[in-house]
Design brief:
By secondary structure, the chain is of the alpha/beta class. It has 13 helices and 19 strands. The protein is globular. The protein starts with a helix and ends with a strand. The protein binds zinc ion. Zinc ion (ZN) binds next to loops.
């Protein structure tokens, strides 16, 4: 730990008393053996279950109704019988999910629109230092919390006082921001110029916004000082986006996965052999696996006792990798979460084209296409919008993709490809699959 990080953690501890401890815990736990990590994960799971059964009215009622007592959960095998928690249950039982032992002041609400379109309110314990996971992931890439940074996401509603306090805590960090909800050429130009000045170690933001910056850099042949990584979040990344962004910024991409309900779940280390699950603070499972081994993601937030989320099904799908990362850490590896469950296109007659597959349709044409979007206009009408990188060979690419999709839909869908100049973001997030019917 360098001096800046040490001072940063001390200052942060004034705001959140367990900041220092949370950071040190993370660094210690990622060095554990696989066996020790599994043991830690399991003991934390059991203690959360016991706590929820005793102190959280909703879990007490739910587990009693199926005849389940935490004492019966003697092994992980039995744990899989603990019922999953759905978004609908949270929406209907918000108050009952708050622990009797905490004051409502401890609970901060977050809302998430998500793919269901129904805003969901979830309570989160304010005192949990979830940021420590961010600092830990940065450390994998050789980045300290106070290093200079360029960000592109939605502006957060901080008060001026909070902003000042943050600047004092993060001193001597220099930060430049791009408002991902207001992406114009002028804003991107100024962002890129400021980046050249502060030379950020990390660029962090929504895929859609960073993608637009990458387009700008490539179009204007600008050379930006290479950061250590471009950390992308909040959307599935297509292969073509990743390779374009990486070459525009001359730096590897760190694909990080999480959701607004439980924040950080997994992220890539520089070896990029998969996403390391932060298994000391999150329990991740995949259930109802399909023929390809892809299952529904079930996550338990092992740190939050105020509003416990136990076996929460967030709507995403992926799978574990079965090898250990060559970086030496034993935090398990999972595959990228590419499409969201609800992004699958149901064509009818049992034909479903998976969202995960759709993210890959241009992977072989990275040099020809810079962005694309899939719009389902009716069950049997699919339009693909494509922003070309170069005109040469484009016709072949378009016709190949058209034919492949036609075959995938077993001939049931009409596939149209529209070549366009740009695809607008929705609030800075690139909406990759749109259902418009
Ligand atoms: Zn690794």
């Amino acid at each position: 730990m360098n001096l800046n990080t040490f001072q940063f953690l001390l200052k942060y501890t004034v705001a959140k008393s367990s900041a220092f401890q949370a950071y040190l815990d993370g660094i210690r736990n990622q060095a554990l053996s696989l066996e020790e990590l599994n043991e830690l994960n399991w003991s934390r799971t059991k203690s959360l279950l016991n706590y929820a059964y005793k102190n959280v009215p909703y879990y007490q009622r739910k587990y009693k109704s199926v005849g389940l007592h935490p004492n019966d959960i003697s092994s992980e095998k039995v744990y899989y019988q603990v019922p999953v928690l759905t978004k609908e249950e949270i929406a209907e039982n918000y108050e009952l999910l708050i622990s009797r032992l905490v004051s409502h002041k401890t609970v901060k609400d977050i809302t998430t629109g998500g793919s269901t379109g129904v805003p969901l309110r979830v309570g989160r314990n304010k005192n949990v230092v979830r940021e420590a996971q961010k600092w830990r992931i940065q450390s994998w890439w050789g980045i300290n919390p106070t290093d200079n940074i360029a960000t592109a996401y939605r502006p957060l509603p901080y008060s001026n006082f909070d902003k000042l306090a943050m600047r004092a805590i993060y001193y001597p960090q220099k930060a430049v921001k791009l408002d991902a909800t207001n992406i114009t050429s002028e804003n991107i130009r100024s962002f890129v110029m400021q980046m050249a000045r502060i030379r950020p170690k990390m660029i962090h933001g929504y895929v859609g916004a960073i993608d637009a910056v990458a387009d700008y850099i490539i179009k204007h042949k600008i050379e930006v000082p290479a950061p250590k990584t471009v950390w992308l979040t909040a959307s599935p990344i297509t292969g073509i986006q990743e390779s374009k962004i990486s070459s525009a910024f001359n730096a590897p991409v760190c694909d990080q996965y999480g959701c607004s309900e439980v924040y950080f779940i997994s992220a890539e280390c520089p070896k990029k052999e998969g996403l390391h699950v932060l298994s000391d603070v999150k329990k991740v499972e995949f259930i109802d696996k399909n023929n390809n081994g892809i299952g529904k993601l079930i996550v338990t937030d092992l740190e939050d006792y105020a509003f416990p989320l136990i076996r929460y099904m967030n709507g995403d799908e992926s799978s574990f990798k079965d090898h250990k990362c060559s970086c030496g850490m034993n935090l398990p590896l999972m595959n990228k979460v590419k499409g969201r469950t609800t992004d699958n296109l149901e064509i009818g007659g049992d034909v479903v084209i998976s969202g995960e597959y759709l993210t890959t349709i241009f992977d072989d044409y990275v040099d020809s296409v810079s962005r694309f979007q899939v719009i389902q206009k009716s069950r049997a009408e699919i339009t693909i919008k494509v922003v070309p990188k170069k005109q040469e060979g484009l016709e072949d690419v378009v016709s190949n993709v058209k034919n492949t999709l036609k075959a995938k839909s077993k001939g049931l869908a009409d596939i149209t490809v529209e070549v366009v100049n740009r695809i607008p973001d929705v609030k800075g997030k690139m909406k990759f699959i749109i259902k418009d019917f």
